[in-house]
Amino acid sequence: MAATIIDGKVLAAEVKAVAARDAAALKEQGISPKLVVFLVGENPASAVYVRGKAKDCAECGIDSIVETLPETTTEADLLARIVAMNADPTVHGILVQLPLPGHIEEKKVIEAIDPKKDVDGFTPVNIGRLQIGEDCFVPCTPAGALYMIQAAGVQLAGKDAVVVGRSNIVGKPMAMLLVAQSATVTVCHSKTQNLAAKCAAADVLIAAAGQEKLITANMVKPGAVVIDVGMNKNADGKLCGDVDFEPVSQVAGAITPVPGGVGLMTRAMLMANTIKAAQWVLQAQK
Ligand code: NDP
After folding, report:
1. pTM
2. Which residues in the chain land under pLDDT 70?
3. pLDDT at 1
4. Which spans in the chain are helix H?
């Protein structure tokens, strides 16, 4: 039997509708949620992502400012702009679109963002809070993936979950979120031995490696939930995930498509995090 498709379009619309409702409620209380996005240089993919973020903000009633800075921007200049946004009380969320030009140290720039405005959840403070189970900004992609798993009706407690990928922005926070839901989690990476056998034991399989067709049907347990985070280009230049979708969907119980899956949820979760940042400001005023 073919797997249920976990529809990112429907779920992202749901998350954005809540964000829009909350944005309106915040405005009634005198707070207009605002996101500032820094775009440095000429990376065309980054420019597309940033336009998408501004569009999402407009849809949700969130103000957005895109600070477009030239490729020649110095690290000191960018840091100074971030410090200014940290100090601006009308700004609730700050995001620096990655990658940055080579002469700018990403780590330094991310660490300059006020953790209370770090809507990407990339600062060490938010990463640490996630680790110890405190309220924090959860990185948007794993947050979106978790939302999809839960929307599919999966009770994670006691389930075996496998995450393929251990990056700081996807794999590791994904694993922490699953542990927090009481799943038993295995994290795989490029040095993992017997990847296929490990994946085939998973009730929930998260593919976040960035390798087209890495996950084949023989690596999937019948009925498993498969979340495809990968965003790759195939030989025809088309967007595809890490999962060999057609054959895997004959084995899995539920699966996310690419496109139309986790990517849309990532965008929606940024809206949710921006609202959360503005709500914190409101709470602090009370
Ligand atoms: P990284 O390149 O930072 O990390 C990839 C991870 O996958 C690494 O841990 C790597 O292992 C592991 N890996 C690579 N090849 C294999 C393999 N053959 N077998 C097992 N593990 C492997 O990527 P990101 O985490 O940033 O992104 C992962 C994918 O998700 C990409 O396709 C990216 O485009 C996509 N993405 C999608 C988003 C969305 O919104 N849908 C958002 C962010 C990313 P090792 O650590 O040993 O090198």
Report:
1. 0.98
2. 1
3. 66
4. 8-28, 44-60, 75-87, 106-112, 124-131, 140-151, 171-180, 195-200, 245-249, 262-285
Q: With residue 176 as reference, give the H or E element that holds it.
A: helix 171-180
Name the active-site residue from 16, 97, 116, 172: 97
Amino acid at position 63, single letter: D
Contacts of 237 (CB under 8 A, 6+ apart): none
Closest CA to 280 of 111, 15, 31, 35: 31
| Nearest protein CA to atom 6 of ligand 1, as residue | 165
Q: Order of strands, edge to edge, in the sheet holding 184-188?
A: 4-5, 254-255, 225-228, 204-207, 160-164, 184-188
Q: Which of 53, 116, 159, 221 is catalytic?
A: 53
192 lines ligand 1 (CB under 6 A): yes
Decide whether any atom of ligand 1 lies within 6 Å of the 259 Cβ.
no
Neighbours of 162 (CB within 10 A): 28
Question: What's at 258, amino acid-wise?
Answer: V
283 is catalytic: no
Q: What is the pLDDT of residues 124-159, one digit of tens each?
A: 999 999 999 999 999 999 999 999 999 999 999 999
Return the half-sphere exposure (C-beta side, CA atoms, 13 A cut-off) of residue 139: 25
Neighbours of 73 (CB within 10 A): 19
